[in-house]
Amino acid sequence: MQIPNSSNRSADALGFRDAYRANGYFFPLRAVSEHEAAAYRGKLEEHEAATGGPLRREFRQKSHLLFTWLSELTRKPAILDAVEQLLGPDLLVWQTAFFIKEAHDPGMVTWHQDSTYWGLSEPEVVTAWVALSPSTSESGCVRVIPGTHRSDQVSHVESANPNNLLTRGQEIAVDVDESHAVSMLLRPGEMSLHHIRTFHNSEPNRSNDRRIGFAIRYIPTRIRQTSFDADTATLVRGTDRFGHFELEPAPRNDLAPDAVRYHTDVTSRRSRMYGRTSPAADERGGT
Ligand SMILES: O=C(O)CCC(=O)C(=O)O
What we know:
By secondary structure, the chain is α+β, with helices and mostly antiparallel strands. It has helices at 16-23, 34-51, 68-74, 77-87, 257-274, 279-284, and strands at 2-3, 25-30, 91-101, 109-112, 126-131, 142-144, 156-158, 170-172, 182-183, 190-195, 200-202, 211-220, 232-239, 246-247.
């Protein structure tokens, strides 16, 4: 399968690639307009209003397999153009995850490296974290420690904090010098990019609004899953010459029955990799 590369190279002008390589993150970049971000938020909240509560935990992972508008968001040229400059022209979406903190939600994320449990053969994963609401210090934006992507995998402990949104409550076991933390402040429709090894965390939402982030994990087609068989990913740009992942179909309609069945199958394969979940991740999602 081949998906044409876009000729839109707007991210070039921002000269962000060197900064990303030096620091392990970059922000802000415009992913979609503020108006489109509001429309995406509206679709999420329409679904929540129809189902009578916040998005179900199991729908917060790999959500691009369930909702056409999220499948569309993962393919936005402005996002792919930026990611292509970091990972090359052949791109898969390996994971998507909603990180939603309700107004005054105590949910938080401990300092961690994404690479800890993902089982991928190389640390070549870029997360595009797209803000669908203001992501500020008050609402608990993502914070990063510059340069930490150059460290190897560091050890993590699994903590029992019931407010931790991470799947296993994992936390970096070495000292993190928070005096160097950078808050990745984003307006709706903007995104940050971070490297799989970058130390990052986030604090509770002390604002009166929800903090809604949609994290899209991009990988180049050349890397593979080493922890379990039959991992899946969506080809969003270029060609897959390797076949390391089962290629996922896009949903034809929101929550189409075949899409929901496929999503259930794929996420249960994934749960073998992640093992147990923390109480907060059980309730609210997380990764
Ligand atoms: O959204 C957050 O607060 C944390 C996000 C995160 O840990 C991630 O995207 O890897």
